[in-house]
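Example: Acetyltransferase.
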Amino acid sequence: MKLEQMNQENETYWWSVYDAAFPPHETLPFDLMKKMVKRSEDVHMAVIMDDTQQVGVTLYVTLPDEQVFVLFLAIDPTLQGNGLGSRVLELLKTTYPGGVMLECEELGLNSDNETQRERRYAFYQRNGLMDSGYITDNPAGTFHLMRSNAKMTTIRLKDAMSLLGLETKVY
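Written out as structure tokens, the predicted fold is:
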């Protein structure tokens, strides 16, 4: 499994998986994300490859000390349930041994998709990500800040959001 940077050949796939995976209120305009990548060499849009097969997409920010913040991660809906998400998280933890950080929708809000949120949260925990105890609040909603180790601090989150040009509050 590997991450292949988005290019003209895989751009349509990237967009189709992203569009199918996230509700409209959690998405960013495609052109804005492409500008983020052009603005900083630390911001990446990638297609997740399993050998030669495209299996998902991600937008992530590389940080100092071999750390990474994952803003978006989605497995192709037609391929979910085959262990690919676990393999991607393992790839990220191996590639970035300093730590992996991402956001997972806040639980306990009686949301329409509460069961899906609980399953996603449990999935991240099963795959070695811990709840940091912090909640992030940004235009997409409120999220648990998940991390692979305590070295991933809110300072790193703020660094990543600054590189992305996005604002977030942390509680």
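The CA atoms of residues 86 and 127 lie 6 Å apart.
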